[in-house]
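Schema walk-through. Below, the input block comes first and the output block second. Nothing else is stored per chain. Lengths vary across the set, and this one has 239 residues.
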Amino acid sequence: MTFYEEAVEAFRRREIDVVQRLSEEEITRAQAAGDVAAEVEAVGCLARIAIVDGDLPEARRLAGEARELARRTSDRRLERTPLHILAGTARMDGDVPAARRLLAESIALNESLGERRSVANERHNLAYLELHAGEVQKARELFSAARREVVEGEMTNMYPQVALSTAVIAAADGDHRRATRYLAAVDSELRRIGHHLDPDDAQEHQALRERLVEELGRDSFDAEYRTGSSLALLEVISG
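--- output ---
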């Protein structure tokens, strides 16, 4: 397993101390070896840790540092991770113009590189941005496009976040019972695989849960949640 694969897996399990150690060790090794690509990824992992800690300014600083490292090379692929993180921090910070610009830039870069998963992921993030800006139809179209790409590409590691956005759209349509069942399916799958949502999606998850409990009341929410726990995520996102 490569450093990045090991770090990402630890991050998804929220083993933050492991990610910190691995990243610092990799930065030391990469700098000694002149391995800029590895250094970019390791600094990006430190930026992700800052996001989990709620320190968005530090995350932006580290992602900016990683992007500057990437720009010193002729390999545009190295900009993908820092650009993604910069877009995510702008979105979480509520800076809509910056987030739109950075997400559009990230989508264009990943399309030019043939990175279908990253394109789907960034479209998905852009959809949330548009939803919160009141552009519900635009968000619906972006969510649908991302969902098609995920299903057709069998990107199973994205199923939880796509199922979550399906629940979010159901809630936006006023179908709070269906949204609750879908939310339960997401939670059930995350428990099964031992993973956590990325911080930006975790924000959406918490906001949705609070909204659904408020709309349905605790008893009705719990009843629908129990029903949804047995749903398969592919059934949710294909429904």
